[in-house]
Design brief:
By secondary structure, this protein is of the alpha/beta class. It is built from ten helices and eight strands.
């Protein structure tokens, strides 16, 4: 098996920052103090990407960050991600955060994420943000994300705040806005519903990061829905949380009996089309 046969773009990586916890990365803003731990973390991420033939990746902030100052803390996290991605602009694209609970006060941060920080999207992990995906707060915010020319990156683990059924309602309201849905394969009930929802919501695209067994969970969905609706992701986190991608997502896709055209679409072609990474 040649890992170099196909270009690989990972649309689901995370960067932990703003935790302020001993043992975890705490960049604290756009200018990390000292920089040694950031250097080590960055070097490790690049080595992992090199081993898996990843030409580039999308970096999303982790949602477990301290925010006693609300929007100012979120903006600092966004600055940190932008500074991190600036270390390798050819290989890293940033996704920002704007908490739904900020309401209209957060709309300016959406615009800043695009115009000043150059982000490709805004990420949501509603189970950690305390606001359901189908909340009115989400509809207003997603509207602003679309107006700014960005894509929502929405986690849908399958709990009461973030499920594929709530994504279905959100996607119905914005049929012309592509949305990248992460973590759907975490729950088998969601996987069973994916084909029907994908058929009626052609603006939805799904990452395969949690399909630990691709032949069992991922490939049947690709066969039913089409390879043009799936993107590659690893859900890879910062050191020391993770030292390697979860499972063997790349190897299992390459070992599958999908055609070369289907494999290339999943591994990078769809990402290039969605995010303009040509």
């Amino acid at each position: 098996m040649k890992l170099t046969q196909f270009e690989v773009i990972d649309l689901h990586q995370h960067l932990e920052c703003g935790l302020g916890l001993k043992g975890g990365l705490d960049f604290g803003g756009a200018s990390p103090p000292g920089g040694a731990s950031v250097d080590v973390e960055f070097s490790h991420r690049m080595s992992v990407m090199d081993r898996h033939n990843m030409s580039s990746a999308v970096v999303i902030p982790g949602n477990m960050y301290l925010r006693p100052n609300g929007l100012a803390d979120t903006a600092a996290v966004n600055d940190t991600v932008a500074a991190y991605c600036a270390r390798s602009p050819a290989r890293l694209r940033g996704v920002g955060l704007v908490e739904p609970v900020y309401g209209p006060a957060g709309f300016a941060e959406v615009k800043r994420c695009r115009e000043e920080l150059g982000f490709v999207g805004i990420g949501f992990h509603n189970g950690m943000q305390g606001v359901p995906i189908d909340s009115p707060l989400m509809f207003r915010l997603v509207e602003k994300i679309g107006e700014a020319g960005m894509i929502p990156f929405i986690h849908a683990l399958g709990n009461e705040l973030e499920s594929i059924w709530q994504v279905d309602l959100l996607a119905k309201a914005f049929p012309d806005l592509p949305m990248i849905i992460l973590d759907v394969f975490h729950a088998i009930a969601q996987v069973k519903s994916l084909p029907d929802i994908a058929e009626r919501r052609p603006n939805l695209y799904f990452d395969l990061s949690m399909s630990i067994s691709f032949d069992f969970m991922g490939k049947p969905q690709v066969r039913m829905v089409g390879a043009d609706r799936f993107v590659f992701g690893t859900n890879f986190y910062s050191l020391p949380v993770m030292t390697a991608p979860m499972g063997r997502p790349l190897e299992q896709i390459l070992e599958s009996d999908l055609s070369d055209v289907e494999k290339q679409a999943i591994l990078s072609g769809n990402a290039k089309r969605l995010l303009g990474m040509l």
